[in-house]
Request: fold
Amino acid sequence: VLENRELQDSIKPQKVEFRSLNFNNTLHWQPGRAREARDTLYFVQYKVYGQSTWQNKDDCWGIQNHVCDLTNETSDIQEPYYGRVKAASAGVYSDWSLSCRFTPWQESVIGPPAVTVVHSNKSIILKLQAPRSPYKRKRGSKIPMTNYYDLLYQVFIINNLLDEQHRVLVYEGSDKVIKIEDLRPGVSYCIVAKTYVPMLDRSSAYSSRQCTVL
Reply:
């Protein structure tokens, strides 16, 4: 019995946590203290905070991965959720390991906008597209994150002649098409943009660079 108890404790999953980008919500964990045996399997359950019964996640029942996609199970973005994981090895099951409470609307990381650059003589015209959630409209298109938050775009310009690391904020607002004027012909400019959520005071990472020579 003691040996079993030790095995139970040593395979118990560690650091169970939700990670979320644009409401793609996944549960992650690390293997227990024991050097992970090849036959260790993991079992995932989830529930809404306040509910008494846990639901099995069938796709993550007896898996070898350390991640489970719970996007569809956590689609009510204002609700708080919990996830939990247990491990099994050599016929012995660990206790459950519980995540912290997770509320998608408050905790999901917003991605940067997609940036398209169209340039004319002395100006750059940018088209910005909000990141998309995994949830779909009836017609099948993915719902943009602007449906869930008031988002602002922050646009930065990098003048490659001066300093590649020096980003100058040239626009902040919600327009999807932006014109940056009075630029010098023959100079290489790069644009990066961020999404900013004022209500949560949170910014995305930078978008990938879009560079152009006027």
Summary: The chain has a mean pLDDT of 91.
